[in-house]
Design goal:
about 280 residues; single chain; alpha/beta; Rossmann fold; 9 helices; two-stranded parallel sheet
Length: about 280
């Protein structure tokens, strides 16, 4: 059955590939970009299937306007994909105030406001699905990505809570958590100004590793997008979907360690209860 999708951040990377895959199989897509010219070849090829809007997700008023216009234009939208985002790369102290604010405004507030904007329309049509692009970085943390992790951990907490709030309206969620994948992610990093004092720290080690290309990128972009589509098509998708062996292993190790630490604190935790 043909579906209609609303997807943000479709200029490049997984967002662009997702649009291409969906159009090729016959679905309709509302795609948002900051520079509409990048979609020209697709709009010419899929004139009857693809609708493009210009949108910067840091502009809440623009989000509300585009969402309203999109639902008015295409009617029922089955799946909303909150994909727009990027990573701020640098130790927390190295980042400028403007960089911090832009990271949170794009990845966290932008995603929250997009989801809030579509909820009334999804409720009115009797339900729908929201796919939130996170990453393994929504469950684990590397040095030099602290602000990026703050945005991803934040949006995952928001979605997990919201999913419980709107389940009675037939609205459900899928959080996608890819590991390192063959996209333009590294090229799109917003790099903080380097402070020499961090050179011989874990942050500096990660910086050197990224610069040298030593980090293994095992994830295949096409296979990642195919897995996303398959999960989004399911009647009852999981709340979270880790994609790539690196993501699976990293998240599994992090959760195992976190549970081990929690269990070791059981006696202390219970001691904080009021006495009966």
């Amino acid at each position: 059955m043909t579906k209609t999708w609303f997807i943000t951040g479709t200029s490049t990377g997984l967002g662009r590939l997702l649009v291409e895959r969906l159009l090729a199989r016959g679905d309709r897509v509302v795609a948002t970009v900051r520079q509409p010219d990048v979609m020209r070849t697709l709009t010419e090829k899929y004139a009857n299937q693809l609708h493009v809007w210009t949108l910067d997700v840091t502009d809440t008023q623009a989000i509300n306007t585009v969402v309203t216009e999109a639902f008015q234009r295409v009617g029922h939208i089955d799946i909303v994909v909150s994909n727009a985002g990027y990573a701020l790369f640098g130790a927390a102290e190295e980042a400028s105030d403007a960089q911090v604010e832009r990271q949170i405004a794009t990845n966290l507030i932008g995603s929250i406001q997009l989801i809030r904007a579509v909820l009334p329309y999804l409720r009115a049509q009797g339900g729908g699905r929201i796919v939130q692009l996170s990453s393994e970085g929504g469950q684990i943390a590397y040095p030099n990505f602290s602000l990026y992790h703050a945005s991803k951990w934040g949006i995952e907490g928001f979605v997990e809570s919201l999913a419980q709030e709107v389940a009675p309206f037939g609205i459900d969620f899928l959080i996608v958590e890819p590991g390192p994948t063959g996209t333009n992610f590294v090229q799109g990093l917003d790099r903080a100004q380097i402070m020499p004092c961090y050179e011989d720290t874990p942050a500096g080690e990660v910086r050197r590793g990224v610069a040298s290309g030593d980090f293994a990128i095992k994830g295949d972009a096409a296979k990642t997008v195919d897995a996303m589509i398959t999960a989004a098509d399911r009647l009852h998708p999981p709340l979270r979907l880790a994609l790539g062996s690196t993501a699976y292993t990293s998240i599994s190790n992090a959760l195992t360690q976190r549970l081990r630490l929690l269990e070791a604190q059981k006696e202390v935790a219970f001691s904080a209860d009021s006495l009966n």
